[in-house]
Write a structure and sequence with these properties.
By secondary structure, the chain is α/β, with parallel strands linked by helices. α3 packs across α7. About 35% of the residues lie in helices and about 10% in strands. The strands form three sheets. It has a seven-stranded mixed beta sheet with strand order 1-9-8-5-4-2-3, sandwiched between helices. A four-stranded antiparallel beta sheet has the order 10-11-13-12. The mean pLDDT is about 95. A hairpin with a 2-residue loop joins β6 and β7. The chain is built from 13 helices and 13 strands. The chain has a domain of about 240 residues: Aspartate Aminotransferase, domain 2 (3-Layer(aba) Sandwich). The protein binds pyridoxal-5'-phosphate. Pyridoxal-5'-phosphate (PLP) binds next to α3 and α4.
């Protein structure tokens, strides 16, 4: 006879998990090596990458990123958001251009398009929660210049299908690999497929230096424009003559430089990247296998051997997903609904097209006969899928015992809700 299931913690029962869970990825492993390297920079007193006494840490990180990702160039930047917007600028995407983005992503993907004064166009994701190539094709207009596949939560988008559509329509591909450092798609690193790619090293990412990012490309012109843009447009070529890498006449740019201090921390984290991704993949796989008896539909993994440890499942309806996520959280499991289970165009600022410079005016698109409006139901497949999704965070420091607690809690909640 099976025992009666315990009461759920959200209904007053005892939580499966009483001690806090590790939630971070690289951040959980910040340790002696990061401290040693950061202290070295402080000891040198040279925190600026281009200063006369700088120790070349940022350059070394760029070299390592190029090597790992297989691109000809890498530019370290101050964040993943700046990497995305700088990439668009360097590609020449700007006012009046349309850029196709997935309905499901973090708001920064959309923000980068808007910062470039281009117009975001939302396409459907499929059951991998990454951009559906067929929907990209269906959303191409004469104004489309680029597409941004997002490798959401450590799963690479179908770069073969997206590449095919992009080639057919002459679109730039900018990979948003903010959530996918170290992830691969059929043997090739995420970030190596597009005309350019963006990585993020913010605190919650696979590897971190608090804030940071990188732009990857194999196109010299894109790299050169990005390099100058991120360093005040190459002004220093003429004012001091010290930045010999800048070519051509200076233009007006901005400052998105990475510091030597950030690079020192990041260099230690880069040494850990392979271990982080493979441990997260192993933990996620073990949990999925142990839950194989439950009627849960797991997120499709286009390349299970290359993913970086994503645990997302779909329930039958959105109400069950919300309750499942809340019940798991109540059991002490790091679970929830990513971005509230809502597509990014329902983010109120996106929905109402509110920017810092035009409160509530439609995104400027002077060459388009109509303005783009977003609304519930715009991408019904994505709304349905994402609304029914539940995510469980995976950390490289999760022990087998931690993983067992996840399995126990999901079984417990499933007994009540499925
Ligand atoms: C998909 C995606 N794109 C872009 C970004 C922006 O990166 P950052 O926070 O480094 O600016 C993030 C960060 O969370 C992200 O998740």
């Amino acid at each position: 006879m099976t025992a009666m299931p315990d009461r759920l913690a959200i209904d007053g029962g005892t939580p499966v998990r009483q001690v806090p869970y590790p939630r971070g990825r690289g951040a959980e492993l910040l340790g002696a090596e990061e401290i040693r390297r950061a202290t070295g920079v402080l000891g040198d007193g040279a925190l600026f990458r281009y200063g006369p006494t700088a120790g070349g840490r940022v350059t070394a990180v760029e070299d390592e990123l190029r090597r790992r990702c297989g691109t000809r160039h890498a530019l370290a930047l101050s964040s993943g958001s700046t990497a995305l917007s700088t990439a668009l600028t360097a590609l020449g995407v700007g006012e009046g251009d349309e850029v196709i983005v997935p309905a499901v992503t973090f708001v920064a993907t959309v923000g980068a398009v808007v910062m470039a004064r281009a117009v975001p166009v939302f396409a459907e994701v499929d059951d991998s929660l990454t951009l559906d190539p067929a929907s990209v094709a269906a959303n191409v207009t004469e104004l489309t210049r680029a597409v941004i596949p997002v490798h959401l939560d450590n799963v690479a988008a179908d770069m073969t299908g997206i590449g095919r559509v992009a080639t057919r329509h002459g679109l730039f591909v900018l990979e948003d690999a903010a959530q996918a450092a170290g992830v691969r798609f059929h043997g090739r690193p995420a970030g190596s497929f597009g005309d350019a790619a963006a990585l993020s090293f913010q605190q919650g990412k696979n590897i971190t230096c608090g804030e940071g990012g990188a732009l990857l490309t194999s196109d010299w012109d894109v790299y050169d424009r990005a390099l100058r843009f991120h360093d005040q447009g190459g002004q220093f070529t003429t004012s001091t003559g010290s930045r010999s890498h800048h070519s051509g006449a200076p233009f007006i740019g901005t400052n998105q430089r990475m510091t030597e201090l950030a690079a020192a921390v990041l260099s230690a984290q880069l040494d850990r990247l392979d271990g982080i991704v493979s441990r997260c993949r192993e933990v996620a796989r073990a949990i999925r296998d142990a839950l194989g008896d439950l009627p849960l539909t797991w997120r499709r993994l286009p390349d299970p051997t290359g993913e970086g440890g994503s645990l997302i499942f779909f329930t039958e309806d959105a109400k069950t997903a919300a309750r499942f996520a809340a019940a798991l959280a109540g059991e002490g499991i790091p679970a929830g609904q990513m971005y509230g289970g809502a597509p990014v165009y329902l983010n109120p600022a996106v929905l109402e097209q509110r920017t810092a410079w035009s409160d509530g005016c439609p995104f400027a698109c002077p060459r388009h006969p109509t303005t783009r409006r977003y609304h519930p139901g715009l991408c019904p497949v994505s709304e349905d899928l994402f609304g029914r999704s539940v995510i469980v965070a995976v950390s490289p420091v999760m022990t087998d015992r931690d993983a067992e607690d996840v399995v126990t809690a999901v079984h417990k909640v499933a007994r009540h809700l499925l």
